[in-house]
Design a protein that fits this description.
The chain is built from 7 helices and 20 strands. It is α+β, with helices and mostly antiparallel strands and about 375 residues long.
């Protein structure tokens, strides 16, 4: 096959003239820069992404987890006719184990082998295998998980392993450059670059507590649990999810901020579990009505709560509109959901609610959540 010319349809004379013109232009640019008056601000060179990648990639690992799910092996299990007569106690229900392999990424945060990843990467796992950047394959043990934030910690036996230092995600600004490092589609040590598109994203539908960093750095299946790194070479997020209508990258990815992941990892290492507060409020929603400017009215509606829960004992009722919590105005359901997930066991939440046109003050004594729930 004939190779296509680099400059199709351009003759030798034209090419020579173009090169000469380019050289002359470069010479004029050099002269203009040299002649720039004192005090003129010139753009500084951008960050050295290759150096950042060299620092980050050794600390990102591939995670392979064998997950086991309980399923029904009966062909009649999903038949509406049999469900109507037998319900959940159908004699045709034969529990089986369905095995799947989850592939994701993790970040080494401790030189002794402590690795942070996403809960959904290792959830229901019976075996967890780690492949390091230098191709070592290690067996990992589970330290603890937190489904509320979708963060988990596992550990391998090791010492002197490469790590990534934690960054302060609260200082992150929209427009900053970031690198996403992970193992998409089992393509190990893949690095992509983008910017921070937004911070504080919620209503993504991934976890109960959502305060995500949004980025346009390419994130694909297999990147979950990998590192989002800033230009200082610091870990500022754990890549978690993408927004996609095709299953692949469409320019919108989400990461758990480092400050959240760091706090969860620290507590899991200390206690093996996360101690969370519980109010019994199980379902909330946006107000749904609009102001005169066409914007949703502020507040969040309590749709459902559990009987004999702290919320019910405090006098909260379904239909109450929460306007403020501890004096802080509540704008929507996502904000209230995050505040409730953050509430510590033993604390008291002071809610200002609107009920039948009247404002009421309600104090809820937060209790410790049973198990891993929130």
């Amino acid at each position: 096959m004939t190779a296509r010319p680099l400059l199709a349809g351009v003759g030798v004379a034209s090419l020579a003239a173009g090169l000469a013109g380019g050289a002359a232009l470069a010479h004029r640019l050099d002269q203009s820069v040299a002649a720039a008056p004192a005090g003129t601000r010139l753009l500084a060179p951008g960050p050295d992404f290759s150096a950042i990648a060299r620092l980050a990639t050794p600390a990102v690992v591939n995670i392979s987890a064998q997950q086991v799910y309980r399923t029904s092996g009966s062909p009649f299990a999903n038949d509406p006719f049999f469900r109507e007569f037998f319900g959940r106690d159908s004699p045709f229900r034969v529990p089986l184990e369905e095995r799947k392999t989850s592939l994701g990424s993790g970040v080494i945060i401790g030189a002794d082998g402590v690795i942070v990843t996403n809960n959904h990467v290792i959830e229901h796992a019976r075996q967890i295998a780690i492949t390091t950047a230098d191709r070592r394959r290690l067996r990992a043990t589970l330290v603890g998980t937190d489904p509320v934030t979708d963060i988990a910690v596992v550990k391998v036996d090791g010492h002197g392993l490469p790590t990534l230092p934690w960054g302060d995600s609260s200082r992150l600004q929209v427009g900053e450059y970031v690198l996403a490092v992970g193992n998409p589609f089992q393509l190990n040590q893949t690095v992509t670059m983008g910017i921070v598109s937004a911070v504080g994203r919620s209503n993504v539908g991934v976890a109960d507590y959502e305060d995500f960093i949004q980025t346009d750095a390419a994130i694909n299946p297999g990147n979950s649990g990998g590192a989002l790194v800033d230009t200082r070479g610091q870990l500022i997020g754990i890549n978690t999810a993408i927004y996609s209508e095709t299953g692949g990258y469409q320019g919108i990815g989400f990461a758990v901020p480092a400050n959240i992941a760091k706090g969860v990892a620290r507590e899991l290492l200390a206690k093996g579990r996360i101690v969370r507060g519980w109010t019994g409020i199980s379902r909330i929603a946006d107000v749904g009505e609009e102001t005169g400017f066409g914007q949703p009215a502020p507040g969040a509606v309590v749709v459902e709560m559990l009987r004999r829960s702290p919320a019910e004992r405090a006098g909260l009722l379904p239909g109450d509109v929460v306007l403020a919590l501890d004096g802080q105005p509540i704008q929507d359901a996502a904000q209230l959901r995050n505040e409730l997930a953050r509430a510590a066991a033993g604390s008291t939440l002071h809610l200002s609610v609107r009920r039948e046109g009247q404002r009421k003050e309600i104090a809820i004594q937060v209790e410790e959540a049973a198990g891993d729930g929130a």
